[in-house]
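Forwarding these from the shared drive since the link keeps breaking.
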Amino acid sequence: MLFQVYGDNAVYQWIGWILVFCCLIGANELARRTKTGGVVAFLVIPAILTVYFITIYTAAAMGAEWALNNPTYVHMTSWFHYAKLYAATIGCIGFMALKYKWGSIGKSHWFKCFPFVIVAINILIAVVSDFESAIRGWGGTWVSTEGVTLYGGWHNVFNGVAGILNIFCMTGWFGIYASKKKDDMLWPDMTWVFIVAYDLWNFCYTYNCLPTHSWYCGLALLLAPTVANFFWNKGGWIQNRAFTLAIWCMFAQVFPMFQDYSVFSTQSVNNPNVNLVVSLIALVANVLALGYILIRAKKQGINPWMKEVFKGTKDYEQAIARAA
């Protein structure tokens, strides 16, 4: 067992998971299919939330009781949550600029490397968090600013290394296209090889460092963009991932009670031995993915980061067929 999904609240936990999964898929479809949907989701709402966050922290610093007791102020204090929210949102805005060709940036060739840069930053944020946990709780436990007990040890190191390797599994940095319908930014060279390696690494990160949230942000949140990519939005995984991540972060930041103290709350078993096994799986998957990429690149005589290495594969060809 990876999660404590048994007992009196088990039915609610499964219902909560299904709701999160379905709502993320639906929200992603609304945000990706129209320019208005994307602008509202990733420009208007984040602007309103930024004012909300600043107001809360300013009022709390002044000793206002309502702010000091605000769920966001009490339960979402970690630097990680804000870093992830704004990094993901910036990614969404950049992806829209590319697919809609906004301004000179959206039309320029050099900006096509933006998806790689922003995804690498998002991965490094999590890697730093994994290493932070290793340092603070090595061989034992430590308590985060949100009151969550975390284990620190080799599992954090192994998964941190897996995350770094995962960055190098992103190939064809400049192979970014807009779909014919202008509803998606496509990265055809980001095939199942990267997606599986990423999902295993990121699930492991949430399992190591967010044990009270991983049921949702480690499973539902990762599966939503992956299912969309494999069944109806081929080549659009990275856009799916950014959109669903940003939407989830906004929800979780404003309504932390859903995950933290409601009938839907779900804990991982939070066992260092289980964490170690999951981390080793993530590390092996990323070693194999990078090895496969380098082998393909060598056979083709290309630089896998400057050129698209998966041309000719089913995933790539199905995705590139959607490009304008």
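-- next protein --
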Amino acid sequence: MAIFLTENSKVIVQGMTGAEGMKHTRRMLAAGTDIVGGVNPRKAGTRVDVDGRTVPVFGSVREAMAATGADVTVLFVPPPFARAAVTEAADAGIRLAVVITEGIPVHDAVAFQAHARARATRVIGPNCPGLISPGRSNAGIIPSDITKPGRIGLVSKSGTLTYQLMYELRDIGFSTCVGIGGDPVIGTTHIDALAAFEADPDTDLIVMIGEIGGDAEERAARFIAEHMTKPVIAYIAGFTAPEGRTMGHAGAIVSGSSGTARAKKEALEAAGVRVGATPTETAELVFALLADAGEASRARRGKVV
């Protein structure tokens, strides 16, 4: 299995005919994603040839869903149009909307997130790399050639750190990697992904990447302590960040002692989560945990024999 995105997902791309949309449509197709259409009202009825595959362009998400059975949309639309695009997708009944666009005004994000939740549309993002279930499907901009299918689940605020941990753990592989984005208002949270990985029989452990600012990681720590049975390894970016200054993502701002990397690390460790000091150390913690689990499994088998 995988969470949120599988080999059966039928994907449309809002903004497919733009430069970024076309570039990443090509990459998603190469990764095996079943892209069944694009959406651009000004080019409705046309068809686009992408590396030998012809993809139809529809005038609306509703039309695309009716014609193709699409259940996932990936949005490459400029920030001023993102609110309308997500709202349109939710009104059409799409199951999953992956919002790659960065620079969306916060009040627009608040509005479309609330609208999507009211219509049971899961939003990933905005300002995110999307998600990938290696060997099955890829919805967004995550490189598909840096890892392989496996049994680790990954949820991350940071796109770059998503890629790094995927590469560091490439010999083990992943069930699904989800980049949730680092804006102040996002759709899918750490907790949402953790709960989905907990329920996924093909995910054995989870890597969670957070960063300074807000209290998302502290809330995730409480969830882990109360609900998770699978091991979680974490990394928090921003130990050297100065207080009171936005760092990288719009949501990464620290006020006083609230939202610091140290506070998040302490909360996670109190919940039984091992926290790496660097991405490489985080990967080493995963290898060590799996090695310990392998030794324990062999010991149990030995007692049975």
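The chain is about 40% helix and 25% strand. The first helix runs from residue 19 to 30.

- D.
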